[in-house]
Amino acid sequence: MRATITKWALVILAVVLFSLLIVVPVIAIFSNAFKEGFDVFRAALTMPDMISAIQLTLLTLAITLPINMIFGLCASWAIAKCDFYGKPLLLTLIDLPLSVSPVISGMVFVFLIGPRTPLGAWFSDKGFPIIFSVPGIVIVTLFVTFPIMARELIPLMQAQGSEEEEAALILGASGWQTFWKVTLPNIKWGLIYGMILAGGRAIGEFGAVSVVSGHIRGKTNTLPLEVEVLYNDYNTSAAFAAASVLACISLLCLLLKKWVEYVSKKEAQS
Amino acid sequence: MMEQVISNSGIIVERVSKNYGSFDALKEVSLTIEPGELVALLGPSGSGKTTLLRVIAGLDSFDSGLVSLNGELISHQSLRERNIGFVFQHYALFRHMTVFENIAFGLRVKPRKERPQESEIKKTVHKLLELIQLEWLADRYPSQLSGGQRQRVALARALAVQPKVLLLDEPFGALDANVRQELRVWLREFHRQSKVTTILVTHDQEEALEVANKVVIMNKGKIEQIGSPEDVYHHPKNPFVLHFLGKVNLFHSRMEDGNTSPVYIRPDQIEIKIEAPNSEAIKGSVIDIQSIGVKTKVKVQTESNTVLDVDMPYEEFLAMKITHQSTVFLTPKKVFHFKEKGPDYSI
Description:
The structure holds 2 protein chains of 2 kinds.
Chain A lengths: L1 H32 L4 H8 L2 H34 L5 H13 L2 H12 L4 H8 L8 H27 L2 H8 L4 H30 L2 H7 L9 H10 L3 H34 L1
Chain B lengths: L1 H6 L3 E10 L2 E11 L4 E5 L6 H9 L6 E6 L2 E2 L5 H4 L1 E4 L11 H10 L9 H14 L15 H13 L5 E5 L7 H18 L2 E6 L2 H7 L2 E6 L2 E6 L1 H6 L4 H6 L4 E6 L5 E6 L4 E4 L8 E11 L2 E8 L4 E7 H7 L6 E6 L2 E4 L4 E4 L1
Parallel strand pairs in B: 3-8, 3-9, 6-7, 7-8
Antiparallel strand pairs in B: 1-2, 1-4, 4-5, 9-10, 11-12, 13-17, 14-15, 14-17, 15-16, 18-19
Helix pairs in contact in B: 4-5, 4-6, 5-6
């Protein structure tokens, strides 16, 4: 009897907290976005600055995701399947972006390749500025999303060991054949899962991007930055319209994630 | 020495050493395996037997010495050229492929020029499935198979590329007793027909003696003895081999020069009688009796307080009416004692 009371108390507590912290804000985003009617919402989303922000966000995603995938694969492969001196150090370094505040990550890059540094100045002279420009946004986004893929793949690869790869090599497969036919299919779902998580983070990243973007509307403002600018301009409906786009992407990521979990679980069982 | 190595078409291991940091996994190991032999590498865990197998396969590197396979040094061959069938202890089947695709893998990854036609691949795989008697499981995934079935699929996959050498790493270690027995018989029969040079790593002395026609006993990175199963069991070179191949009784006998020296007797090499057969027999009393199937194990405490294990057939045990505390007389039939080097027997 006592156990059931405790159980229900915990369940109710969890539901209340979940509603207060997540459901209510999500509803608030959408109700604010549509407060002044659908036309205002559509007008807000078709403003040139907004379209540019959405495009920039998608461009960042399109560049960071494949690079992330390749780097994540290489790093996880090296850590899970090879033994080398300094492996613990590499593991720690991979985790670094997760433990550093995103704003600090952005600052580091400003100090490193900002316009006042020799390297940054050289790039600016060549007409290819990095900081306060799109390349900077891509670089910091890469930096903050990099650990996600590796974190997803390393435990998976470690658990699987390298016996299957050894078996493939002994059976006469080349290195590429082994990778495409054995390694990749085994980590396929982990890879997709990691990409969804990294993608969600890449789209929503605010702190680090904010430091390096320069906030040039229509040029270097990503969607989360655009939300801030609109909100500070007291343009609440437009700010919430942009926020609702982000929320939709997040929900989509969540759905995709659930679907991947479901499919991979089903595949593992069969 | 080089020419000699090249001219032989079996497996030759010459003074191979390998260490992991300060741990010597192999210490100057030399071993020759003739084509068509079925050899068991036997030893306790950590004795270097799996390392030796992986070195021969080319999966592990070694620090010094040389290994030749089919008349060629393995350092000159790629894994593909070595043409080895390897069966892993935990099967290492490709988990995302069906049984059929697992077995076909070695054929499918061949370079385009050597790759057989699809119809040929199908034929080969079905022949192998027939050989391992699992035709009805062709479309299943490894996770849907039992341990014994997985091990047979792993064997078929290794055999698909028609290896010149078959290497098995504790292949039956993770299986239950009945399946293990069945697969041992299968392996022996398969080897009798195919004559593929086979090396089997095991820590189970019974398995080694039963399956192989040559047994290599290893300990601490070194080979202790190489010989036929009869040879190593009946003529062990040193106390380690003797101990490893079955239980032995140890006692210290006084020599003519006044020193004591260790003497070993196998439990089944002691004759047990109710009445003293002669004045030489050792008198003792029974302190424990254990009947296991056709064998009965009797523990006897001698007058000098040594406890000896005696194995006898159950029928004989019944006929003698031995009970707890019975007084019995023991006569060793075969005694081992080892001088510094080489065996010495007295009966």
